[in-house]
Write a structure and sequence with these properties.
Blueprint (H helix, E strand, L loop, with lengths): L8 E2 L44 E4 L6 E9 L5 E8 L7 E7 L14 E4 L4 E9 L5 E8 L1 H4 L2 E8 L14 E4 L7 E7 L5 E8 L3 E8 L14 E4 L7 E7 L5 E6 L12 E6 L18 E4 L3 E9 L5 E9 L4 E9 L14 E8 L6 E4 L5 E6 L8 E8 L14 E7 L3 E7 L5 E7 L2 E7 L10 E9 L18 E4 L10 E15 L5 E8 L9 E8 L6 E6 L5 E6 L8 E6 L14 E5 L15 E9 L6 E12 L4 E3 L5 E7 L2 E7 L6 E4 L5 E5 L4 E2 L4 E4 L6 E7 L39 E2 L7 E7 L10 E6 L8 E2 L4 E5 L8 E6 L9 E6 L11 E7 L14 E2 L2 H10 L21 H9 L4 E2 L18 H19 L1
Parallel strand pairs: 30-46, 30-47, 37-38, 49-56
Antiparallel strand pairs: 1-15, 2-29, 3-4, 4-5, 5-6, 7-8, 8-9, 9-10, 11-12, 12-13, 13-14, 15-16, 16-17, 17-18, 19-20, 20-21, 21-22, 23-24, 24-25, 25-26, 27-28, 28-29, 30-42, 31-41, 31-43, 32-40, 33-39, 34-37, 34-40, 35-36, 35-39, 43-45, 44-47, 48-50, 50-54, 51-52, 51-55, 53-54, 55-56, 57-58
Helix pairs in contact: 2-3
Length: 956
């Protein structure tokens, strides 16, 4: 589907051909290959798609004509085409859906060889499709009798992601709806945020009227919409047909229709725009009311308004074929209307942009909107009576000007052979433009470069790995480079240089029973952290069963591809023991005999999953096809060949260059050698953006020759259970938003200031400690806490936190962040002492101690004062003067209850605490300077002695 600006949900429309095409050979060939090119621009055909020419043709070998009326692109870049197949020349026989891989080949994991054909009745056709958020595919059109379906009904179908019918939808995945007339057809679909489906077209009850049906997610007409789920209305006359639909952010429904017969120009083609409320009632705020409530008609000669999108301000863009009565030919034009339905006459020339002139027939038109608001139109360009065909793609700015950066003057026309046509257009996730339609009697998909996704020149990343003698993270004069150090691109950002193979195992404890003849044993294996795509995968089985020829075993990939590993093999033997299915094995599993062990080729090639994402849930299915014997699945594993991440070694002077880096964003790391401590960059890695042909320099790494002790670099408080952490009392990442930027821990030997005391009404209920280079996995009992009102801190009472959560890498520059919470009110109007112990887990050579205080309402303490903290008249005056501050930031010292505003509640809290004091603290000072030197037995002994001194000083 095309991708509009934020919060709009556009859809499309379709119309049948008004003239039969002559029969042609059912070709399956590509178009003439374009000349080799090095430079590409927006609008060029993407020659990586469709076998080298940018165009893919697909269809059934048993049919005469296969055509695609709709195109959509999945989030993984695969292309969906939907339309019809026919064995005659009537342009409709059965529903036909195809899925193409990103290179334009048929995706064999979908349907049968990449195609799904559905037969509703004598003559069927799809006009539109959409992709649900869960990946399921909804297609809509019509089903009826022969002779171009002069008796027809709405027809819908929903497919699972692998192309099988979704049996939770309608009857076995299908829905047929009759308006009680002779020719009902769906031309456009849209999906509401609640997964209800809107189908728009023609509902013939009294003449041809605009027909709309809303279906629930299960395929039942929604009784809360219109009359029993249906809306049937006239715009100007009884000959209206809805061809396109889009949803506004408020769920109002905008429809573009042909309202020709009896229109204001006496039968001349007339555009009708309609807006309905979410319940299906015409919106009286739209249009003038002269042509019916909620409707606008415009005599612009448009016969098939099949393209419709909304921008993020509610403007309406409509594209369709327009009849020139003088020449009896059609052109494609684009129009713009305001959110209330008024035509924008300053758009284009006189209110219209001409896309493709000279067509002899009225063909559907595709319209999509890029993320930047530019409009992409796909149209058919037949100029010789339909014997030769082409399609035109144009890009238009929101001002109505053809975009000169796309194609030639904003347009690209591609010849496609006999009666070729471009019916629909979609924007792929990478910004490429995909057109769907018909060429050489086949479904056609063509892919063009957009502004994004253009081939780009590779760049380079370079720098130096150096010995940081003073451990300051900066390369100083005389600090040498380090030779033979590995620098690499961490593509999956797991902190490890990956390459070779990775094996993931699922052991069933207890062994999983295999139902005999009645069911299937299913085992899921979750693979995470490997990243990349499958280039090779092997499956190893351990199955206990006395008659393995009864078994059928399948592997299912995270995207739903099924691979039959084995079925009816091995004769009357038992068990698979460490049996590996490997495409490269010398012997087929069909030629082996039970008991099986060793390596065999599977019955279907595991290459069926090549190119798919490794990470995800893989499934093994084991079926016992007979009821004679029972068995168990004991364990199974997957072994993936993982591509080596790009890497290089530094030269003798420590310099390095990573060459041929494709433009993108990368994490660059080094492999730190034993005995060294990395000092730069902070956090251990560089994030580098490489543009086309760019040489990125200065990506340096510093390393200290020795083991640096861990240090505490952050001692902060946060307002737990406040408006700033979502009023969540648990210790979690939300606490980071509630950290007080103006408060910090008081260190031994310092005199307390206002920076060390909070006024929070819940007291000290949140503390954060950031540790740089911890020695191991820090445990909650590596921190100790006590609280008191003053005097000797060694005599304070121990307090227990509610929760201590250690978050490796979550602090600034990749430090380990420790979140500590206390019950509200436990440490109120007193001091808290935090001790981080020195041990192998923290990595500290001496324990780290700091203090934070709380006095509810205290907000005006003079830091130069040697006296205690107090709540006094200065606080009352200051807080009263701040009332009305809304919103208040986390640093607002008058927001005593931290609810994000200063109001009378804060003033009353202060009044209740008026006159209270908190002793000004100056904890004992201890000399704690340690030289940065390699760790040896001598330095370890020295550290131990200094820890003893520190402990003695603190304990008095």
């Amino acid at each position: 589907m095309h991708r509009p600006l934020s919060r709009t949900v556009p859809s499309r429309r379709r119309e049948e051909r008004s003239v039969a095409r002559p029969a042609a050979p059912h070709a399956r060939r590509m178009m003439e290959t374009l000349e080799n090119r090095v430079l590409f621009a927006a609008g060029d055909l993407d020659t990586t798609f469709g076998g080298g020419d940018g165009v893919a043709l697909v269809g059934l070998p048993t049919t005469l004509i296969d055509e695609a009326k709709a195109v959509a692109v999945q989030s993984d870049g695969k292309v969906l085409l939907a339309g019809s197949s026919s064995t005659d020349n009537n342009f409709g026989g059965n529903f036909l859906v195809a899925r193409l891989n990103t290179d334009g080949s048929l995706d064999t994991s979908f349907g049968t060889g990449g195609l799904v054909e559905m037969d509703f009745g004598a003559e069927d056709g799809i006009e539109d499709l959409l992709i649900q958020p869960d990946g399921k595919i909804v297609v809509g059109g019509w089903t009826g009798t022969l002779n171009n379906a002069t008796t027809a009904n709405f027809a819908l179908a929903r497919l699972n992601t692998n192309g099988t019918p979704d049996t939770t939808f309608g009857l076995s995945g299908r829905v047929v709806t009759d308006f009680a007339g002779s020719e009902d057809r769906i031309y456009a679909l849209a999906l509401q945020p609640d997964n209800k489906i809107l189908a728009v077209g023609r509902g013939t009850v009294s003449g041809n009227q605009l027909g709309v049906v809303r279906y629930t997610a299960s395929g039942v007409p929604d009784s809360t919409f219109g009359a029993a789920g249906k809306v049937n209305m006239s715009i100007w006359s009884n000959n209206a047909t809805g061809y396109a639909v889009a949803l506004q952010p408020d769920n109002k429904i905008v429809i573009a229709a042909d309202a020709s017969s009896g229109g204001p120009a006496g039968g001349v083609a007339t555009l009708g725009l309609v807006r309905l409320s979410p319940s299906g009632i015409p919106d009286a705020t739209f249009g003038t009311g002269a042509h019916g409530t909620g409707a606008v008609v415009d005599n612009v000669g448009i016969t098939h308004p099949t393209g419709l999108v909304l921008d993020n301000t509610g403007n309406i863009y409509v594209a369709g074929t327009v009849l020139d009565t003088g020449t009896n030919t059609h052109s494609t034009k684009l129009f713009k209307y305001t959110p209330t339905g008024s035509k924008v006459t300053t758009f284009g020339s006189g209110g219209a942009v001409t896309i493709s002139p000279g067509g002899f027939f009225a063909f559907p038109v595709g319209l999509a909107m890029q993320g930047d608001g530019k409009l992409v139109v796909a149209a058919t360009s037949n100029t010789t009576g339909g014997t030769d065909g082409a399609w035109t793609v144009a890009r238009v700015t929101q001002a109505g000007v053809l975009d000169s950066t796309f194609g030639t003057g904003g347009r690209v026309t591609t010849p496609g052979g006999l009666q070729a046509a471009g019916y629909d257009v979609a924007i792929a996730p990478d910004g490429k433009v995909v057109v769907g339609g018909y060429s050489l009697n086949n479904m056609m998909a063509a892919r063009y470069f957009g502004d994004a996704g253009l081939p780009q020149d590779p760049g380079t990343i370079s720098g130096v790995v150096y010995q940081d003698n003073d451990a300051d993270g900066v390369r100083d004069v005389g600090e040498p480079g380090l030779a033979d150090w590995m620098v690499y691109l961490d593509l999956n950002n797991n902190g490890v240089l990956d390459g070779g193979t990775s094996t993931v195992t699922r052991t069933e404890e207890p062994p999983r029973q295999i139902p005999d003849g009645t069911g299937v044993a299913v085992s899921d294996l979750v693979v995470s952290g490997l990243g990349g795509t499958v280039s090779d995968v092997n499956v190893t089985l351990n199955i206990t069963h006395p008659y393995v020829s009864d078994l059928a075993v399948y592997l299912i990939s995270p995207t739903g591809t099924r691979v039959r590993l084995l079925q009816d093999v091995g004769g009357a033997g038992d068990n698979f023991t460490n049996t590996t299915l490997d495409d490269e094995a010398s012997q087929s599993i069909n030629l082996g005999a039970a008991p099986f062990t060793g390596r065999y080729r599977p019955q279907q090639s595991l290459s069926l999953v090549d190119g798919q994402t490794i990470d995800g849930t893989w499934r093994l299915e084991v079926r016992d096809l007979f009821t004679d014997f029972a068995g168990t699945l004991d364990s199974w594993s997957l072994t993936f060949a993982t591509a080596a991440e790009p890497s290089t070694l530094t030269a003798s002077d420590g310099t390095y260059t990573l060459a041929s880096v494709v433009p993108g964003t990368y994490t660059v790391r080094e492999v730190v050698k034993t005995g060294f401590t990395q000092t730069a960059p902070a956090g251990g890695a560089h994030t580098v953006v490489v543009t086309s042909g760019q040489a990125v320099t200065g990506i340096d790494f510093g390393n200290f020759n020795g083991i640096l002790p861990a240090t505490v670099v952050g001692r902060r408080v946060f307002y737990n259970n406040s408006a700033f952490d979502g009023r969540n009392s648990a210790a979690n990442p939300q606490d980071d938003a509630a950290v007080a930027p103006d408060k910090q821990g008081l260190l031994p030997g310092q005199r307390a200031t206002s920076a060390n005391v909070t006024s929070y009404s819940k007291g000290i209920n949140g503390v954060i400690v950031d540790v740089q280079r911890p020695g191991g996995a820090i445990q909650p009992n590596d921190l100790q806490f006590s609280a008191g009102t003053g005097g000797n801190p060694a005599l304070w009472d121990a307090v227990s936190p509610s929760q201590v959560v250690v978050r490796p890498g979550a602090g600034p520059n990749g430090t380990t962040r420790i979140n500590v919470t206390f019950a509200d009110g436990t440490i109120r109007n007193m001091w808290l002492r935090v001790r981080v112990l020195a041990n192998s887990r923290t990595g500290l050579t001496q324990e780290d101690v700091f203090y934070v205080g709380n006095l509810v309402g205290e907000s005006t303490h003079v830091d130069t004062s040697a006296g205690p903290f107090s709540v006094n008249a200065h606080d009352l005056v200051a807080t009263r003067g701040a009332i009305g501050t809304d919103p208040a930031t986390v640093a607002n010292r008058y927001d005593h209850n931290r609810d994000g505003r200063v109001d009378v509640v804060d003033f009353n809290l202060l009044r209740r605490n008026y006159g209270r004091i908190l002793e000004a603290l100056q904890p004992p000072s201890v000399a704690a300077a340690f030289a940065v030197v390699p760790v040896t037995a001598a330095t370890t002994a020295l550290a131990s002695a200094r820890r003893d001194e520190w402990t003695s000083a603190l304990l008095g």
